[in-house]
């Protein structure tokens, strides 16, 4: 089953085609890698999938629905989670509060429900807190739950970002350079957690420059160059494809 699909999607910024006729499908349960030299259009492709940037042309489908014109929050509610290349947690809020802010549609947000269903709200608050703590535990951050997010290292922020996106129970998660700035020990935690969450049925698409991580995690890899799909295959296949080697050598140096 296809969870996410791009059909001939393009995005132009002025004269530049940042994404130029991209078509691909993401199968339920897979971990798909998206690689390519700097400036290839990978982050713009994520922006188009997540709805933070509108496509100039083409179609995006999520769980079989056309979401091309749906705003980001509707895609989030439809099962799409997304992390950012540079995570920006609220620095003065505790980790747990940063997590609780990521909740979707909790009853407490509706003012009227506070008067009519206080007990249900208290129960939901408790459940959300328990879920946030369990997710912080999963990414080895539970002991810091009450600390402000500013104390976290860059790598720990990436882990918090992964835990935060899981609060909304996404079906497909887009990870933008999850390994960047993460030390080797935390990287192992991150890889294990992505595998574990994937085994529970969550689909992943990840942009990553760390080829070791890509080959260990990804079932399949798409290579982008100059806004287009250059080739696809297993991590081993794309690593030895001469077109891929040339795209990296000819591309903007990192
Ligand atoms: N908001 C924007 N306005 C203008 N140009 C942009 C914008 N975002 C990205 N671009 C351009 O689109 C191209 C692809 O960028 P990007 O998607 O960030 O690539 P990648 O993530 O693969 O490094 C680059 O040439 C970049 O300069
Ligand atoms: Mg990028």
TrEMBL record:
Q: Which PROSITE patterns match?
A: ABC_TRANSPORTER_1, ABC_TRANSPORTER_2
Signal peptide stretch: none
Q: Report if keyword Magnesium is assigned.
A: no
Q: Which InterPro entries match?
A: AAA+_ATPase, ABC_AA/LPS_Transport, ABC_transporter-like_ATP-bd, ABC_transporter-like_CS, BCA_ABC_TP_C, P-loop_NTPase
Keywords, A to Z, come to: ATP-binding, Nucleotide-binding, Transport
GO molecular function: any one?
Answer: ATP binding
In terms of superkingdom, the source organism counts as Bacteria
Q: Does the keyword Nucleotide-binding apply?
A: yes
Report the residue ranges that make up the ABC transporter domain in this protein: 4-251
Stored Pfam families: ABC_tran (PF00005), BCA_ABC_TP_C (PF12399)
The name this protein carries in UniProt is ABC transporter ATP-binding protein
This chain's source organism reads: Cypionkella sinensis
């Amino acid at each position: 089953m296809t969870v996410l699909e791009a059909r001939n999607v393009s995005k132009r910024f002025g004269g530049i085609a940042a994404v130029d006729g991209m078509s691909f499908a993401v199968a339920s349960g897979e971990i798909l890698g998206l690689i390519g030299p700097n400036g290839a259009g990978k982050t713009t492709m994520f922006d188009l999938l997540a709805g933070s940037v509108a496509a100039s042309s083409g179609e995006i489908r999520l769980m079989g629905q056309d979401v091309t014109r749906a705003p980001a929050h509707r895609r989030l509610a439809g099962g799409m989670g997304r992390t950012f290349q540079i995570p920006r947690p609220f620095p003065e809020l505790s980790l747990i509060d940063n997590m609780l802010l990521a909740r979707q549609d909790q009853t407490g947000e509706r003012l009227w429900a506070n008067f009519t269903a206080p007990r249900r709200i208290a129960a939901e608050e408790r459940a959300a807190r328990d879920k946030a703590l369990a997710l912080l535990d999963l990414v080895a951050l539970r002991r810091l739950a009450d600390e402000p997010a500013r104390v976290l290292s860059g790598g720990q922020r990436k882990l918090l970002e992964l835990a935060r996106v899981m609060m909304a129970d996404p079906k497909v998660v887009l990870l933008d350079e999850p390994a960047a700035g993460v030390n080797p020990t935390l990287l192992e935690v991150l890889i294990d957690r992505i595998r574990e969450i994937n085994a529970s049925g969550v689909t992943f698409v990840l942009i990553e420059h760390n080829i070791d991580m890509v080959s260990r995690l990804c079932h399949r890899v798409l290579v982008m160059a100059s806004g287009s799909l250059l080739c696809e295959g297993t991590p081993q296949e794309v690593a030895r494809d001469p077109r891929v080697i040339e795209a990296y050598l000819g591309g903007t140096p990192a």
